[in-house]
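Appendix B, Record 12. Input sequence as logged:
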Amino acid sequence: MRGRVTELRYARGAVESVRYAVGADHIVVPADFVVDASGRGSRLADWLERGGWPRPETERLPADIRYLSARFTRSTDWDGPLSGISRYSAHFPKDIGGAAVSPIENQQWAVMLSSFGNGAEGRTSDEFVARCRELPPIFQEAVKGELVGEVVPYRHPDSRWRHFEALDRFPARLAVVGDAVASFNPLYGQGMSSAALHASCLSEYLCSGPDLDAPARHFLKLEKVVVEAAWQTSTAGDAIRLGLAAPPDTQQERRQAWAMRQVREAAGRDEQVGTALRAVGFMTAHPASLMAPELVLRAARVNGVPEDQIRQEYTMTERM
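Logged structural output:
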């Protein structure tokens, strides 16, 4: 059914139906169970408040990342790689986030440039092509083709987490997933992975034979584990970039920061450490796995940390 949802209706502490509009017509559909997967622009908080339920608090972290994307015709003569990602270090003199190129249907390339701040550079087709010509060969090849359509801008102002799990009252027969719960800086690639894991949490909840006349607390608890992992991974980098990250305060925080620094520095030089870090980025492992003493110990040795310092730090890390 296609339409614009305008409200939820409740009875006996549960969602009983969904009201939506198609043009001037308003239709009410009875529902056994409702899942809000309407994305970052979800109006669920409004619908809850309108029905007499509490509104969740929204946690925000500025990101202010801008995307520019464009499509180009793709030559049949190109025999090089068919996808590429280019990233800049945090200290790169220009406020650039990175770039990506992929082949798509109709023998075309899709090219994306990202930047922080006003993102004005590259908005015109000539500027876009000029920036791509400074990137690795696959980007240069992509923009040799004819531009299809226009350069399209997109802005992601902040990461958001709506804390439905913290509400003291929540209607039964209702779940919320994906960006409707939490949306992250897309530069870190957490969105699709976390949405798939939210679906897995919902499957586990519904297959467990729950009492649907009680709020889906078990589902919200499972989902929170996924959201926290993605939030921790994606917002940490933005907080450091924006100068919003608080310096380690306690001894435990300082030890954890030391351990994380060892893992990140060793990831590019050691396959085992790099694989562990990548698993967290791909959301096939929890961020806590990077604090495993054996991994931290290996990373510190790869980094050439003196053994006496390793023994001191390792002992504390082992206790975390």
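The two ends are 51 Å apart (CA to CA).
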